[in-house]
Write a structure and sequence with these properties.
The chain has 120 residues and is mostly helical. The chain contains five helices and three strands. Helix 3 crosses helix 4.
C-alpha cells in the first residue's frame, strides 16, 4: 500500500505552511495537514475593492518616499521599541485616521520629526 504524499513530506522533515500548487497546507503539532485550495466563488464586494485599493495606495506612497524619510520611520520604531517596522507604522497612520493623533507623541518621544502620509 502506497503512502500519501504528506507522509513522505513528514519523513523528510518538511514543514509546510501556505499554498503549494493546488494544495493549502500547514503543520500542527503532530502532522502536516493538506487540503485542496478553496477558490473564491463570488467576486469581491465594492467595499473589499475600495479597501484593497487603499492598501495599494499606501504601498505606492511608501515607495515614493525618499530613503531618508523611510529611514526616519524605521528609526522611530527602533527608538521607541515598537513591535512594528517603519512600513507598518506608515500603513497604520495612512489607514487609520484616529492613529494620526499619536504622531505628535511619536515625534516628541523619539525626537524625530515625521511627516504625515497623505490621507487615502
Amino acid at each position: 500500500m502506497s503512502k500519501p504524499g504528506y507522509f513522505i513530506l513528514q519523513a523528510i522533515c518538511f514543514k509546510a505552511q501556505g499554498d503549494i500548487g493546488p494544495l493549502s497546507c500547514y503543520t500542527n503539532k503532530r502532522e502536516i495537514v493538506m487540503f485542496l485550495k478553496a477558490w473564491l466563488r463570488d467576486p469581491a464586494s465594492s467595499y473589499q475593492i475600495a479597501h484593497r485599493n487603499r492598501i495599494r495606495a499606501c504601498a505606492r506612497n511608501w515607495q515614493a518616499l525618499s530613503s531618508q524619510d523611510k529611514a526616519k520611520w524605521e528609526r522611530v520604531t527602533k527608538v521607541l521599541s515598537l513591535y512594528i517596522n517603519g512600513y507598518n507604522l506608515w500603513v497604520c497612520m495612512s489607514m487609520n485616521l484616529e492613529a494620526r493623533g499619536a504622531l505628535p507623541t511619536l515625534n516628541r518621544q523619539s525626537h524625530i520629526i515625521l511627516t504625515l502620509p497623505p490621507i487615502e
